[in-house]
Give the backbone structure.
Amino acid sequence: MSRLIIPIALLLIACIPQRSDAQQADVIVYGNTSAGVIAAVQAAKMKRSVILVGPDRHLGGLSSGGLGWTDSGRKETVGGLARDFYHRIWQHYDQNDAWTWQKQSDYGNRGQGSAAIDADNRTMWIFEPHVAEQVFEDLIAEHKIQVFRDEWLDRETGVDVVDGQITQIRTLSGKTFRGKRYIDATYEGDLMAAAGVDYHVGREANDVYQEKWNGVQVGVLHHKHWFDKPIDPYIVPGDPSSGVLPLISTDPPGVRGEGDDRVQAYCFRMCLTDVAENRLPFPQPDGYDAKEYELLKRVFDAGWRDAFKKFDPIPNRKTDTNNHGPFSTDNIGMNYDYPDGSYQRRREIIAQHEAYQKGLMYFIANDPSVPAKIQQAMKKWGLPKDEFKDNGGWPHQIYVREARRMIGTHVMTEHDCMGVHDVTDSVGMGSYTMDSHNVQRYIKPDGTVQNEGDIGVHPGRPYRISYGSLVPKKSQCTNLLVPVCISSSHIAFGSIRMEPVFMILGQSAATAAILSIDQDIAVQDLDYQVLKKQLDADRQVLQFDGPFVSNGGMDPSKFPGQVLDDSDAKKSGLWRSSHSVHPFVGEEYLHDNGDKQTLSKVTWTVDVPKPGKYEVRISYTANRNRSTKVPVRIDNQTVLVNQRKKPQQRSRDTHDGIWHTVGTFPFANTATIEISNANADDGHVIVDAVQLIRVK
């Protein structure tokens, strides 16, 4: 849902006197997140006065709130103060006394896609929460930045806007803060919204920005966070009149590609430890009811055993524990009110999430219905005594994966992330997968439960983030920058929303703020070349010319002839995407999961450049569980393909075969190629790409 706001309060601003006792600085940064800290530091480094104010008592947001298994993407794209943060993390762990619960030599050094400790570049990307928080505190202290904590913006009447400029902001405590430029570094975008800037909550329909991966994604099953076996959603199995189990929606899920107001799930990134001397047992939350987890019990009963898949290791025998599987730490569907909710409503949502997640861990560790091996293993884990000491070992920050997103001068979309659009005013780079967690849990027409919304599409190569996505429309506010709730579609934000990127954008936003002050111009009028010169001087990475890198997929443009990926085809039935078996073309390949009850088809309509004979090839990943009789229909002819045999045509980039020649066929103007699972009842059917090569 898009919010086009003209608050009544803004019409009365001219009558509000400015307080003489206001805290004043050139730049007011609202939000104590990682982006907020870095923005404040950059302003100070540019010799301007700055105040950091926000509702949190702790600095760093998610980076100090449990997310120590950094979602970094291509680390070469992380520069400036963000890289300095990870260098300081490396400096800490380079000291022997940093290793309190294990020897450094015993630490596996496993990171997300690369080593945790990069000694060559003197950076470290995996860390404990308290270490990150101390780095942020050190940065603030070194630059003598004034910080106001536990100060909550008065969202109703506390933002004064005159002639398109914020003149001052007030918090609920009565404090007033006045600056020349303002930066909203919150995860919620509260200052942005209160200033009357347009924003969106939820998923846009695909046709809004001509995207593919936005909107409702019913039937798209990326990752492994879905029900791969039929699970009954009813209290009495098979009896809808008995009612629905907790945490399952009875609303229809919507139609593929349509927009909705739903928000991807939140959780707490728990830090756990298996060191007995440092371990607190999982507490039983107030109001705990084992019936809340009946759906998980049924998942266990169906044979699921991957409960520890996302216990990602961080130093000193701890974890950054994230969601994994069909029923896990993500509290699906319980956060829809959060983005626009009052402070009280948000507190209620956070409390409910905390109770749910604590109850989940308590259930697994204690309920007699849990498989014995899983329960015995879970009992070895608990909350760390030396993390979040003022909160019983529990993270102080809920993982707000997405809330409001500004509708600014430029809206980042999947086309920007995929390199289809050329961004010419780069203020930083993203490279992580366009990633959305599940958005809803619903009942399918066949009476089983399923999750929806989990997406993972790799952009292929790092992409530029537009300066226009940090600034509102000029008609709405001329002295505000927004580096967290940036102007972006839902699916593009799925890649941008990573902590290193937030820090990068925080630095760039502060740089633009200072330069616009120097020139006494609106932030929208800042000459990009002037901004770029300063960002380059401060070691920000604004472009990257490295190779195409996907989920192991191969760039379709590198093959001869005409190549059309599965993403270019019309699909019907029930296909699941995967990238687990290599090689394949593009971002992913499709499979029917062995489901023969549903007739599933993929059809390409290809415009041939010249009438004649063409060799038709298909790409698939061979495996012994594949079908031996996959029907490939080319115009009116059908050929059966044995997908247990490896394709014979090889690519220069792989030693394995990737293309299988189906045959040579005459085409006039168009070619219709269809792959289905019709009568392919002896295994899985794979669909990846087609290739047409003219036969001379």
Q: What stands out?
A: DSSP finds twelve helices and 38 strands in the chain. The longest helix spans residues 343-366. The radius of gyration is 26 Å. Confidence is low (pLDDT under 50) at residues 6-17.
